Structures are given as structure tokens and as C-alpha cells.
């Protein structure tokens, strides 16, 4: 009787430990998510200052008849200054600069973009929500403390007073920061966006996939189906397994030395970054593919051979399609890993400040995790929330990719 | 009762098979009468399946396996000659395995695969006809005619095995090898397959390996008894089950082995 | 010979074989007593023969039921099948021999014999021959001797000849003397029973040959 009691108690204890483990893990993950979310959510909104904008012909070098090209090339800086002085009367030079600093540095870009789409506003006054500078943005969001001595603040007392005045006038607003998703990197936190990094990672992953998947698939098929077991095959298998465990920076060195050094490929481009990631992902794909091939029962091969199929026909008509779900799952997981890697990209130069959105795999670019890293290193406070927002986005992509892998596996899974 | 027919679909002689150094088949010679069912019986590990696999060269898949001997089909074709491509051989000699192994594709695809790779049908409609005819011959058509595009692995065990038979006969072989085809099936499915074998022998020569002596006595007209790689006795099935020549044979079929 | 892996099966077959053997011993005893009755007219012998006949009938039923059970439950083949098949047929023949023994003893005791002692002697001698033949046949059955069985089958032909000559003699005697008709007829029937026993023994010999060789042979064409 007692032995049964002891066994049941042990059962209950074991169950409890399991539940405790799960609970703690969920707790830590939740806390992490909360921290990231609360820090990062700010990045999705930016502070604006409502201003009256008079498209004064006196300060403009183009008019409503100018072409898009001409408008794009024109400078709107003078107009920007005029807007500041017309909204804030009677400013001396020092204060003018202080007020101008409260607006985003590239205030003129915003005016130009508006004019490009609304040429008929020439010589008219409209109300625009101008993006505030990052420092102002941070003060409004409460990330900078207000009640410290001026020397310890980014915003000086005069600017604070203007801010309070504008707040009373209800001219301080907040708008959804879609620039985060459409812009490339920038020195100014308020206009910095992640699209450049996303495209950079996208091109790199496409190159990685195009390189690693076919080679991995055919190498696995050859190793699994065509080679006879022997010392050489064992040696190859051991080496491939080891490669999967090699630190990723070693692949970065390989990319640097071979692709850039020997083949003279350009520096800092997704093509090279993608190939480097491809080297890294290849062992993962081969291991996943081989294990899927092994899981196909020999009876399928025998059935095909007994019908008079050649070995190649049996392999590609029957075995490979059955091994595909497993291979795809392994590939997607490999891609997800590659997405999150910074070290190999570092060596080939894809961890750098790149402002332009890359148009293809041969344009200079940076990757998503690299971008996050760069922002985290920045001195500007405004980049803190951007870093967390970037992390949120990266996590989202990883979750989506892993979920896709699971769904594909479920959908194409075959019962023998 | 097998009449004295001189027509043999396959004659084998001096067959030796080794796995590395281990001998699996020791000097076996059997002749298989055309359009008859011959069964190979014997205890586990006696080599009957190994011998069967020699006949469509499936042993070639195993590296360590060495096959010697003469295998002559229709008194003219040497199965192991270099002039005979394996794929053509397997078009003439089909095989049905112990555990039903349909491809995880549709029923239609399973039956159509063989004809497709051998280029037997010259048009889609010809292929459709061939599939239909093969399923009919295998006694499966009525049960699946409305769901030819359903996946084959959804069928019951007995239906799957009949599908494998349909698949094998779709390429119009002369000889069908069956390696314990009913061992994974229930008695009713087994009875259906045995009845099918009875019908098939009109058009094909059938060689069946079986663990069940009652099956051998039910379906075959000639029986060969293997033990430890040796052929102990071969002959008319009725004779083997009434008064076999060798005491070993009698001991085996009456259950005195062990 | 090896034994069956299935001990239950092995037991059942052994029991059938043993029963058959015991039954043959009883039949032989019956036959010996019955043939003695021809001369001795001992009514105690008659009672014994009747009692033994009941035993023989029981044996036949038991063997029949045991064989049927083995066929149902074990589906025997080859040597086992031949054993069961033979046991069924032989036990039936033995049971018929037993019946004839009872019949002839009854007639031998109840008939007042006013026949010549010579005729009684030939009848008695016929009885001994039949007994010897039956003994030989049983021997060939349990020792598995095909040649001996073939010989026994031939011996029955001689017994048939002997019967015919006794028959002719008796008919002759009866034609010449009406008073001999009643006992003559009875003794013809006794002789007939003995001849039938010989036939049954020959049938058993045929079954023995089938049991050993697996085939029914056309014995008339075979020369020894």
C-alpha cells in the first residue's frame, strides 16, 4: 500500500516540477516581451508640431508648373526657415536657431514631399503637422526627465517654454510613424526607418536560399542514395555535421577571404552576404534533407525499382517528393537562423550605416539584426525605442517563418 | 494435378547466393511451369525469399550479395546477362511484396506509374483504359472506380495489396513474384487474394513464397521446400502434401520441426 | 522420427494409434474364440465373444470421434493425414470383423451338428487360416510393412478358394442327404462369415499399403 502511495506522490511531484518549469519559462518570456514592447512601442509614433505653412513664392525656386524632377532637385531650406519665422514671431537669432532645432532637421524634405504631391498649394497657406526633432519627441514621450538642471538636458529651458506654449495651444500632436517602415537608416532618429535593413536581409536571404537549397538537396540525395557506405562517405558525413556547429563568424571570414579576396566581389552587398549565409546554412539543409531521405521507408524504393524504374527515376519520382516536407522545414529553420545572424555579415561589411534602400542584391545594404545592433550602439536617445521596435519586428519575422515551417510540415505530411 | 507440360516460364540451375562469406542458397535448381502457381515453402531463414529476389534481380540492390547460377526465361533469355537491362527484365517479371507498399499518391497514379516510365501507353485515353483494365483484373475496380484520385494509403490493407497487384500487372509482365503477399492481411482479404491468384494464373506464371502451408496447398500446383538454403524437395503439390519423398519435408509440413 | 511441436496434436494422434492397437488385440481375441467355437461348442466362449464385440463397437465409435476432432482442429497433412484416414477406415473394417465373429459364434454354438467331422475340421482349418491372415495384416499395419501387407492380400485369394471348396462339399452333402440341410446351411453361413472376415482383412491390407505409400494400388496387377 505504501509503495503505491509513494509512487503516486512521486508522480504528483514530477508533474508539479514540469508545470513549474513551464510556468517559469512563460513568465520570463512574458517579462521579456513586455519590456521590449513597452520600450519599442514608442517607435511607432512620432511627435508633430502643427504649423501654418505658406508656400511663399519668395522662398521657392519652383512653382506649380515645375516638373517632378525639378521639384525633387530644388531646395526647400529657405522655405523651412520662413515657416519657422512666420509661426514664431519676433525671434532673435539665437532663439531662432533654438526653435528651428525643435523641428526635425530635414523639415525641408517634408515640405518638398508635400509639394510634390500637392503642387496646387503654391502660394497658399495650409496647416501641416511637421515632425518634431528627436529630442523634443523624447521629452514629449517622457523618456527624458524634465526636472533636472539644464546642463543635464538635451532640451534647454527656452525650448521647454516654447514646448509648453505649443502644448497649451494644442499644437503638439502624435502621428503613426509609418516612416519607420518606409525609410532607410538616418542620422536623425525621428526619420530613421527599418525598410532598408529589411530589404537588405531579404536580398541576402534570397541569395542564400537560391545558393544553399539546390546544392544542399542534390548533395544530400547523392550522399544518401548513390554513395556506398565506406570510409570516405563517413568522413564527409562527419565533416558536414561538424560544419553545422562551427561559429558563424568563421563563415564570415570565409566570405571575406574567398568571395571578396579571391573572386573580387564587391564589399557590403547582399549578394556576398547571402552567399556567406549560404555557406553557413548549407550543412543545416544537408542534415535535414538527409534525415528526411532516411525516413522514407525502403519499401517505397523497392516498389518503384520492382516496377522497372531506374535508380534516378525511383529517387526523384518517389523518394525526394516524400523527403521534401522535412527538407523544407529544415530549410526554413535554417533561413530563420540566417536571418538573425550578424557575425558573418560583419566580415563582409554588411554591418554599416547605409541610408539608401537597396534596389537589388548588388546595392550596398545592411541586414536587420545588424541595423538593430547599430542603433543600439548609437548615442542618441531616440534610437533606444527604435532598437526595441527593430527587435520586435525581427522576432515577428522569426515567429512567422517558424510557423510557416510547422504549417508546411503539417499540410504535406504523409502517412504511410 | 500438374499435367506433364513441357512449357516452363523459367528454369533455374546451379544457383548459389552468398551474403559476403555466408552462404544463403546452396545449389538450387527449380523449373517453374508456365501459367501455373508454384509455391516456395520452408521455415524462417531458409532462403526462399532470397531465392525469389534473385528472379527479378532485386538482390542487386544489396551490395554484399553475390548471385551465381543460370536463370533462363522462356528457354531463351538469360536474366543475368549483360545484354538484359534490369529495367526491361523487371517489365517482364513483376513483384508484390509482403507488406503492401503503394506509393503515397493517388490510386490512378500508382497503377499508371509503371506504364508511364516504360512508355507503354501512347495516349492519355490508352493509359486510362490500361489502368481500368488492371484494376479490373486485380478485382479492385468496382470498389474504387468512383475515387481513383483518392490517395492510395487510405485503402484497407487488403485493398492496398490488390492495388499493388494491379500496379504490377499494368506493365503486362509474364511472371509475377509474390513474397508472402497475405502475411499482413486478415483471413477474408487473404481469401480474396488467393482467389485472385487463381484467376491470374490464366495469363501469368506465378511464383509465391509463403509461410502458410495451407495457403501453399490451396493455391499452388507445384511446391518446393527449402531448408537452410538447400532445396530439399520439389514436386506436385498434392504429392508433397500426401506423401513427400523426403522425411525432412514430411517433418516440416506436419509440424515436427523445432 | 521427431515429435510434433504441438504436444496436444501429438497426444491425440498417439491416442488414436494406441486405441487402434488395443482394438486389434480385442478383435484377434474375438476371432480366436469364435473359430474355436466351431469345434468346441463352448457357450461360455459365446458369451465372451458377445462381450468383446461390445468393446469393439465402443472402440470404433471412439476412434471415429477422435479422428473427426483431429481433422477439425488440426487439419493434418501428409503422414498425419494418412494415419487418421487409415484409422477411420481400418476401425470400420475391424468392427465388421467383430460383427462376423459374433454371428458365426452364435451359429456355431446353437447349431446341432450332424455333419462329418472332416467338414468340421476343414471349417476349423479355414478359421485358423483366417485368424492367421488377420494376425499378419494387423502386424503389417502396426509395423508398417508394405510387402507383408501385399502378401496378406494375396493370401486372401487362397482363403476364397478354400471357402469355395467347402461350399461345394457342403452343397454336395446336402443334395445327397435331406437331414443335413439345416446344419449344412448354418455351416455354409459360418464359412461365409469366415470368408467375409478374410475380405475385410484384405481391405485392411489395402489401407496399410495406402498408409505407407500414399497411393491406392491396383493389387491384382502387382506380382510379388
Short précis:
The complex is a heterotrimer of chains A (416), B (258) and C (224). Chain A has 416 residues and is mainly α.
The total count of helices of chain B amounts to 10
Note the gap between the termini of chain B: 31 Å
CATH architecture type of the largest domain in chain A: Orthogonal Bundle
Distance between the termini of chain A: 45 Å
Low-pLDDT windows of residues of chain B: none
Structural class by sheet pairing and helices of chain B: alpha/beta
Description of the molecule:
The complex is a heterotrimer of chains A (416), B (258) and C (224). Chain A has two domains: 47-177, no CATH class; 195-412, MetI-like (MetI-like fold). Chain A starts with a helix and ends with a helix. Chain A is mainly alpha-helical and 416 residues long. Chain A has helices at 2-40, 68-73, 77-87, 93-102, 107-117, 134-141, 157-168, 179-182, 195-226, 231-243, 248-262, 270-295, 298-306, 311-339, 343-347, 368-377, 382-412; strands at residues 45-54, 125-131, 172-176. Chain B has ten helices and eleven strands. In chain B, strand 5 (65-73) and strand 6 form a beta hairpin. Chain B starts with 7 loop residues before the first strand and ends with a helix. In chain C, helix 1 runs antiparallel to helix 2, helix 1 (7-40) packs parallel to helix 3 and helix 2 (43-74) runs antiparallel to helix 3. Helix content of chain C is 85%, strand content 0%. Chain C starts with 6 loop residues before the first helix and ends in an 11-residue tail after the last helix. Classes of the chains: A mainly alpha (416), B alpha/beta (258), C mainly alpha (224). Chain A binds chain B through residues 228, 297, 299-300, 302-310, 313, 317-318, 322, 414-416, and chain B through 56, 58, 61, 63, 86-91, 94-95, 97, 99, 101-104, 113-114, 117-118, 153, 164, 167-168, 171.
Short descriptors:
heterotrimer, A: 416 residues, mainly alpha, MetI-like fold, three-stranded antiparallel sheet, 3 strands, 5% strand, elongated, C: 224 residues, Methane Monooxygenase Hydroxylase, Chain G, domain 1
Amino acid at each position: 500500500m505504501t509503495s503505491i502511495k509513494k509512487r503516486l506522490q512521486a508522480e504528483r511531484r514530477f508533474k508539479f516540477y514540469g508545470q513549474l518549469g513551464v510556468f517559469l519559462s512563460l513568465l520570463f518570456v512574458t517579462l521579456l516581451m513586455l519590456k521590449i514592447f513597452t520600450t519599442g512601442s514608442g517607435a511607432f509614433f512620432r511627435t508633430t508640431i502643427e504649423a501654418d505653412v505658406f508656400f511663399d513664392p519668395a522662398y521657392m525656386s519652383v512653382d506649380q508648373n515645375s516638373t517632378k524632377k525639378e521639384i525633387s532637385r530644388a531646395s526647400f531650406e529657405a522655405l523651412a526657415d520662413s515657416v519657422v519665422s512666420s509661426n514664431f514671431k519676433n525671434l532673435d537669432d539665437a532663439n531662432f536657431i533654438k526653435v528651428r532645432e525643435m523641428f526635425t532637421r530635414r523639415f525641408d524634405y517634408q515640405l518638398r514631399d508635400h509639394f510634390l504631391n500637392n503642387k496646387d498649394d503654391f502660394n497658399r497657406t495650409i496647416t501641416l503637422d511637421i515632425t518634431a526633432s528627436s529630442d523634443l519627441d523624447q521629452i514629449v514621450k517622457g523618456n527624458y526627465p524634465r526636472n533636472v538642471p539644464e546642463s543635464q538636458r538635451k532640451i534647454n529651458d527656452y525650448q521647454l517654454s516654447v514646448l509648453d506654449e505649443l502644448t497649451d495651444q494644442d499644437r503638439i500632436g502624435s502621428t503613426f510613424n509609418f516612416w519607420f517602415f518606409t525609410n532607410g537608416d538616418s542620422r536623425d532618429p525621428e526619420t530613421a526607418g527599418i525598410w532598408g535593413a529589411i530589404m537588405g536581409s531579404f536580398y541576402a536571404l534570397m541569395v542564400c536560399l537560391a545558393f544553399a537549397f539546390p546544392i544542399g538537396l542534390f548533395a544530400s540525395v547523392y550522399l544518401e542514395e548513390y554513395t556506398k557506405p565506406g570510409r570516405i562517405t563517413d568522413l564527409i558525413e562527419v565533416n558536414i555535421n561538424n560544419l553545422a556547429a562551427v561559429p558563424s563568424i568563421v563563415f564570415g571570414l570565409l566570405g571575406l577571404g574567398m568571395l571578396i579576396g579571391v573572386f573580387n566581389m564587391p564589399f557590403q552587398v547582399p549578394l556576398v552576404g547571402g552567399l556567406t549565409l549560404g555557406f553557413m546554412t548549407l550543412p543545416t539543409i544537408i542534415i535535414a534533407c538527409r534525415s528526411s531521405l532516411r525516413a522514407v521507408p525502403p519499401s517505397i524504393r523497392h516498389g518503384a525499382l520492382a516496377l522497372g524504374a531506374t535508380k534516378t527515376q525511383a529517387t526523384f519520382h518517389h523518394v525526394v517528393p516524400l523527403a521534401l516536407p522535412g527538407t523544407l522545414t529544415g530549410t526554413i529553420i535554417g533561413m530563420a537562423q540566417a536571418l538573425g545572424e550578424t557575425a558573418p555579415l560583419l566580415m563582409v561589411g554588411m554591418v554599416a550605416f547605409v541610408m539608401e534602400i537597396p534596389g537589388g542584391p548588388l546595392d550596398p545594404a545592411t541586414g536587420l539584426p545588424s541595423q538593430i545592433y547599430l542603433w543600439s550602439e548609437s548615442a542618441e536617445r531616440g534610437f533606444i525605442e527604435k532598437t526595441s521596435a527593430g527587435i520586435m519586428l525581427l522576432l515577428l519575422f522569426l515567429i512567422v517563418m517558424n510557423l510557416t515551417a510547422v504549417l508546411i510540415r503539417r499540410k504535406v505530411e504523409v502517412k504511410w | 494435378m500438374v499435367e506433364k507440360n513441357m512449357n516452363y516460364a523459367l528454369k533455374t540451375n546451379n544457383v548459389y547466393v552468398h551474403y559476403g562469406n555466408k552462404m544463403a542458397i546452396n545449389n538450387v535448381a527449380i523449373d517453374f511451369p508456365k501459367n501455373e502457381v508454384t509455391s516456395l515453402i520452408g521455415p524462417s531463414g531458409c532462403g526462399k525469399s532470397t531465392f525469389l529476389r534473385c528472379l527479378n534481380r532485386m538482390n542487386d540492390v544489396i551490395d554484399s550479395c553475390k548471385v551465381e547460377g543460370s536463370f533462363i526465361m522462356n528457354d531463351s533469355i538469360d536474366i543475368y546477362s549483360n545484354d538484359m537491362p534490369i529495367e526491361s527484365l523487371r517489365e517482364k517479371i513483376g513483384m508484390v511484396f509482403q507488406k503492401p507498399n503503394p506509393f503515397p499518391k493517388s490510386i490512378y497514379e500508382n497503377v499508371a506509374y509503371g506504364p508511364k516510365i516504360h512508355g507503354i501507353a501512347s495516349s492519355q485515353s490508352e493509359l486510362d483504359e490500361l489502368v481500368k483494365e488492371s484494376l479490373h483484373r486485380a478485382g479492385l475496380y468496382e470498389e474504387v472506380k468512383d475515387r481513383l484520385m483518392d490517395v492510395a494509403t487510405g485503402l484497407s490493407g487488403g485493398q492496398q495489396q490488390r492495388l499493388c497487384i494491379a500496379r504490377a500487372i499494368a506493365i503486362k509482365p509474364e511472371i509475377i513474384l509474390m513474397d508472402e503477399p497475405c502475411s499482413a492481411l486478415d483471413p477474408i482479404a487473404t481469401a480474396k487474394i488467393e482467389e485472385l491468384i487463381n484467376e491470374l494464373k490464366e495469363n501469368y506464371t506465378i511464383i509465391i513464397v509463403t509461410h502458410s502451408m495451407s495457403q501453399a496447398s490451396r493455391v499452388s500446383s507445384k511446391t518446393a521446400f527449402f531448408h537452410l538454403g538447400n532445396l530439399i524437395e520439389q514436386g506436385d503439390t498434392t504429392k508433397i502434401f500426401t506423401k513427400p519423398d523426403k522425411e525432412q519435408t514430411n517433418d516440416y509440413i506436419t509440424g515436427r520441426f523445432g | 522420427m521427431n515429435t510434433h511441436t504441438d504436444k496436444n496434436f501429438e497426444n491425440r494422434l498417439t491416442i488414436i494409434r494406441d486405441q487402434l492397437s488395443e482394438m486389434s488385440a480385442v478383435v484377434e481375441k474375438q476371432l480366436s474364440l469364435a473359430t474355436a467355437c466351431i469345434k468346441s461348442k463352448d457357450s461360455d466362449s459365446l458369451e465372451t465373444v458377445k462381450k468383446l464385440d461390445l468393446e469393439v463397437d465402443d472402440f470404433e465409435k471412439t476412434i471415429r470421434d477422435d479422428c473427426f476432432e483431429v481433422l477439425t482442429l488440426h487439419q493434418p497433412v501428409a503422414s498425419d493425414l494418412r494415419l487418421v484416414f487409415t484409422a477411420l477406415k481400418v476401425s470400420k473394417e475391424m468392427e465388421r470383423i467383430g460383427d462376423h465373429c459374433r454371428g458365426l459364434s452364435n451359429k456355431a454354438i446353437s447349431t446341432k451338428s450332424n455333419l462329418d467331422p472332416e467338414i468340421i475340421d476343414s471349417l476349423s482349418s479355414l478359421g485358423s487360416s483366417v485368424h492367421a491372415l488377420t494376425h499378419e495384416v494387423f502386424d503389417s499395419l502396426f509395423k508398417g510393412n508394405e510387402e507383408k501387407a501385399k502378401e496378406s492380400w494375396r493370401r486372401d485369394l487362397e482363403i476364397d478358394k478354400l471357402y469355395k471348396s467347402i461350399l461345394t462339399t457342403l452343397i454336395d452333402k446336402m443334395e445327397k442327404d435331406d437331414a443335413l440341410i439345416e446344419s449344412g446351411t448354418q455351416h455354409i453361413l459360418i464359412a461365409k462369415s469366415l470368408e467375409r472376415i478374410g475380405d475385410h482383412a484384405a481391405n485392411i491390407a489395402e489401407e496399410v499399403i495406402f498408409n505407407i505409400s500414399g497411393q491406392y494400388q491396383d493389387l491384382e496387377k502387382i506380382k510379388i
